[in-house]
Specification:
693 residues; alpha+beta; Helix Hairpins; 11 helices
Length: 693
Amino acid sequence: MRRNSLSFKIVTRIALLVTLICVLLTAFAILFLRRIQTNQVVGMMTRCRDDAGKLIDLSIDAYIREVEAISMRSDIREMDWDVQKEILIEEARRMGFESFEVGDMNGMAHSTHGNDIWVGGRSYYNKALSGVPNISDLVYDERYNKMVVVVSCPLYGEGGSVAGVISAVADASFTNAITSSVKLDYDGGIFIINDAGDKMAGVDYAGRTMLENNIHSGDYAPSGKFGQFRELQIKMIQEPSGLETFFMDGKEYFLSFVTVNGGRWHLGIIQNRAQALAVLSEIFFRMVLITVAAIVFGSLGGLFFARTLRPLRRVSASIKEIASGKADLTQRIRIKTEYEIGELVDGFNTFTEKLQSIMTVMKQSKESLSDAGTMLKSDTKNTISSIDAIIENIQATRMGTTLQFSSVEQTASAVHEIASNIESLERMVENQSSSVKVASGAVSAMIGNIEKVNASAEKMTDAFRRLEEKAQSGLRKQDDVSDKISVVGEQSKILGNANKTIREIASRTNMLAMNAAIEAAHAGASGKGFSVVADEIRKLSETSSAQSKEIGEQLSKIQDSIGQIIFASNESRLAFKNVSEEIQSTDYLVKEISSAMDEQHRDSEKINASLGSMNDSTDIVLSAVNEMSEGNAAILKEIQNLQSSTTDLKQNMDKMESGAEDIRSTGSALSEISERMSASIEDISGQVDKFQV
């Protein structure tokens, strides 16, 4: 099989395609299954961690409840150590504890192991005293020479208050026994640490006096091979739960953790990550085998398919033989086969026969086609020359039309301007006629008004004459009134003097009456009648005095009024005099106005006659302007018709020029086409001659 053959390419591409598909499917399957397997392992470890945490909490609670049950016994609550000791020794043996301790409120405790001890400073003891059952961290106890853990509960007295503490001491293996109940699916382990990092479970403390602490150990330094595990233990203390991965001793592990024992301890579960995901390795191996098998079968299929393409190589050889010779269209491919390849060969032979007949016809027609091309080329050149002559004539005619159009435009503009001037003249004549008519009417009205003013002036002259006579009469009467008022003023002065005399007489009479009354009093009974008369005289004098005083006041007011009347009378006399003088002046002015009105009446009649003549002339001018406007309208209409005809002629000439240009362009294109066609005919003739028919 040649490397550049179609069979080799098909086999190679099928093999590469199958390989690529298998690799992609394998990668996708591994990634997909890895994610699924990882999620399953994570979910399983999370459930295992949570179940283990619950189991450990339940185990711790079970031991605490055992100790609480013992503390609730009445014989224990009596706090009689002799009774308590035997019971607690038996319970320690039954439950697997090292010993029991019973302490009082002061911190002293009896122990079933031996001597009394002081426990007051221990945290688990103080916590139990506060009423909280608890389990302590691991601690080394010299009495037992080993690590122990203490379960403590409060002891309640009869009154219900805390009376002491009961504690059960257990070996350190106690916590390992609790964690050993948790079963793991893969290699790993379980451990418990407290908040300080000390391991509470997961370590064999037999014979050891110190707690193991990976956080503070030099072997677990951050830069050491266990540094990552140390950091995860710190994270266990800081977070309530989680799932992490880490490397240790060259292996990768899962670490799932959760808090237990009320948050004081932290449970960690370690499992080998490679074992958890071991199923992926098996899947990967099987996918590789499937890929190799697919590549082998794909290559075999390609080889089988290549065998079916052998007839095509024979077809290719026959085609090259026809193409590399003298274009002999009489040759045919002789291959007998079925399927699509046989149909391809038959189709190629049919195509060759059809091409042979076509080339035979083309050889027969090439000479006549060449003559037709030569004639077309010659006729096209003659047509272009004629079109150029037509275009020159059209352009000359178009220039004349353009000049005519410009002249018509100028004439139309001049006629429009004349029409505009005639319209302006007509409006001015009409305005003048209207103004003359209005002025004539105004002058006629003014003449009538002047006549009315003259009549009114004559009436005013008569009225002013009568008014002056009445003013003179009023002035004389005002003088009479002034004289009479002066007389009344003098008489009022006389009355004032008489009233003053009467007031003096009344005053003297009053004095005489008072003296007479005094004398009548001196006379006694004989002067009683005289006293009555004197009293009446006194009253009459007082009345006269009061009346005289009132008359004096009235006379004073009358004199004041007379003074005011005299002043007003003088002012009125002066006013009558001024009015008379003003009337005389006004009468003179009225006479002057009447004289001016007469003169203006005569001038207005002359103006009215002139306006009548002007109005007749304006009517004649207006009639002439109307005739001019009608003649100009007729001229303007003819100019517009001429302008429209010129515009149409210009547009037609533009269209003719544009059409001639289009014809010329078409002729040029046709000439180019005829030249190209002649060249193509020559090329075709050369190619047709190469074929052997």
